Every structure is written in C-alpha cells, then in structure tokens.
Amino acid sequence: MSHQEFHTERGESIRSIVLGFNDGLVTTLAIVIGITSVIVESRLIILIGMAEMLAGAISMALGNYISLKSQIDFYKAEIRREKQEIEEMPSAEKAEIYDIYQKKGFKGKLLSQIVKHIISDKKRWLDIMMKEELELSGKFENPVKSAGLIFVAFITASLIPIVPFFVLPIAEAVPVAIIASVIFLFVSGAIKSRFTKLSWLRSGTEVLIIGLVATAAVYFIGTLIPA
C-alpha cells in the first residue's frame, strides 16, 4: 500500500469519526441540557438522551450510507454512458479529447501525439474522459465502513453528556456534562483540522462555539415551554 493510499484511507476514516462524534456530542448535549429546563427527574433525562442517541446514530449512519452509495451508483452510470459513447461515437469523443488538451495549452504535433496516445487504449481513454470531461475521480469512501464509523462515533460522543446523569444529581450533573462536552468538542474540532488544513485552535474553537450555541438555543426554547 502506498503512502498516498494510506493517507487517503486514514483521512476518510478520520472524517467519518469526527463527523459522527461532533454531531453526536452537539445534538445530545443540546437535547439533554435543553430538557433540564422542563424536566427535573434524572431517569427521564437519561431515557430521552438515550432515545435521541440511538435515533440520531441510526439516522446519521443510514443517511451517510445512502449518500455515498448514491454517489457510487451515479459514477457507475456515468462510466456505462461514457463507454457507450466511445464505442458508438468515437469521432465525437476523440474531438472532445482534442478540445480538452487544447484548452490546457497543447497544440500542433504534440497535441496530436497526446490524443493518439490516449485513444490507443480504451481504458485510458475512458479514464481521461471521466476525470477531465466529467471531473469524476472514482475515489469514494466505503459506504458500509463510513456508516459504521459514524454510528460508533455518534454513540460514543452521545454518552459524554449523558453519563453524569447516571451518577450525579441533576444540579451537579449539568455543569459536569457541559464541562466534559466543552473539552471534547474542542478536542474533536482540533483533530478535524488535520484534514481541513485550518489552524487547530480555530477549528477547535469553531466546533466548540457551534456546540454551545446549539445547546443554549435548545435550553432557551425549553424555558419557553410551560412546565
């Protein structure tokens, strides 16, 4: 396995994990803290938090699976269409290759040699058409693996704001849940910077702010509901 392949696969895994972790932590924290404004029984808070955790994890994992599977199916359909066009309309497809490389600055004899080289191999020809004409690389995350990582990460992160309510009274569990979530939100945002190329401080702060705003919004809405 080359360094590039290892880097790509690891990056895809990190993206799935961080995506599931962030969403699980933010949504569960917002729900759990939000309902403390109207519910004063730990058991009910835990039940609601666990229900949200399972529903959210399943929904997010399935949504990600369907999205990735749809991208792959679309790519396969485009390959079939492009193959058919190369077989049935080779002159038109050859003209498109000329046009693509002419726009890249090639001309004259060199341009003709490039085109001749490309169309001499149908597999190469198809690959060029997919990448250059349709701008489709054919590199996708594994839908099952990505969905599984998101599901596990979502569940793991959701437990962070829920666990304090198992062992502490609500008055003490709330600040513990918030503090623990703040730490993990910032850390997960900092980790995300490894593939977003942003500063770890900026990335961590952005994720933290989004999580706190969502939590505050749900809590405020909860205070408007009559007990």
Descriptive notes:
With 227 residues, the protein is mainly alpha-helical. It has two domains: 3-63 and 141-223, no CATH class; 78-133, no CATH class. Helices cover 85% and strands 0% of the residues. The chain has helices at 3-35, 42-88, 90-103, 108-119, 122-133, 143-162, 164-167, 170-196, 200-223. Helix 2 (42-88) crosses helix 3 (90-103) and helix 2 (42-88) packs antiparallel against helix 6 (143-162). It starts with a helix and ends with a helix.
Strand-residue fraction?
Answer: under 5%
Q: What is the total tally of β strands? A: 0
Spell the H/E element sequence: HHHHHHHHH
Tell me the overall shape: elongated
User: What gyration radius follows from the Cα positions, in whole Å?
Assistant: 25 Å
Largest sheet entry = none
Structural domains: how many: 2
Stretches where pLDDT is under 50 for at least 5 consecutive residues are: 1-7
Overall pLDDT confidence? 86
Strand-pairing-aware structural class: mainly alpha
For the termini, the CA-CA separation is: 59 Å
Helix content class: over 70%
| Total count of helical runs of at least 4 residues | 9
